[in-house]
Amino acid sequence: MFNFQQFSASALSQGSGKGRLFPLLSIALVSLGGLSAGLANAKPLPGSVMVSQGVAAESEPAEQTQAERYVGVWALVDNENHLFNVRLEADGSAISTAGVLGVPLAGTGQLTGEQLSETGRWQPWANGVRIDYSDGWTDAILVGPAGVEQWSWSPESDRLGAPTNYSKAVRVPAEIAPAIGVYLLEPTQTDQESYTTSLLSNGQAFNTIDSRAGGVWRLEENLVVIDWISGWRTSFALPQGSAFSVSHWEPGADHDQAPTATRPGRRLN
What we know:
269 residues, 12% helix, mainly beta, 19 strands, eight-stranded antiparallel barrel
């Protein structure tokens, strides 16, 4: 079973998180003049070789290689230094598990879909990628003095200036990356609308159907199992496509027996 606690500690141990000013040391290492010149050109220089964490990227073609290297799921932090994830798709779309109000806390009350996810677009930018979200914020995943870093700019900030906030950026391990993201699930109760569920790389889960929206999830081979604070259990196989079947067990039900109901679900992109 994947060790969520160990990964979460590793992912955040070197990050100072959004909400802190970019340190003077990093400003000294990367002058704003050089930063502006580099970020103004979203394409890497022809024939260049970019290196991240000891992995060299081939330069033919440079822009395509750069984009491919960042496709996947990343662990970042929000304004309150809470972990969230962003999935970068090959088509340039992005979806995060943090809503416009940030990441919910464990044991939180009723939530809305806008609190569980946010969409955006990403593109190759300088020596990394830039993600522009619907609320005006920008996250960049770049190779900086301390390795792969997250730089973030508030809506009113100059993207060619020092970032508003920064942290470490960590690629989510391949074992759990396919499960991380935001889903739309149909509930057991036929009189209720489909609800949103988000799964984070630290093992936390949230939904928009329960009055206390938190829970925890785990992988059992290729099966995602979510145990909610409400007592309900939700389970589905790792999605092979956009749509799949979801099993629900009501509180007190024997999980070794047939589920209370099986309903459709799909991943949001």
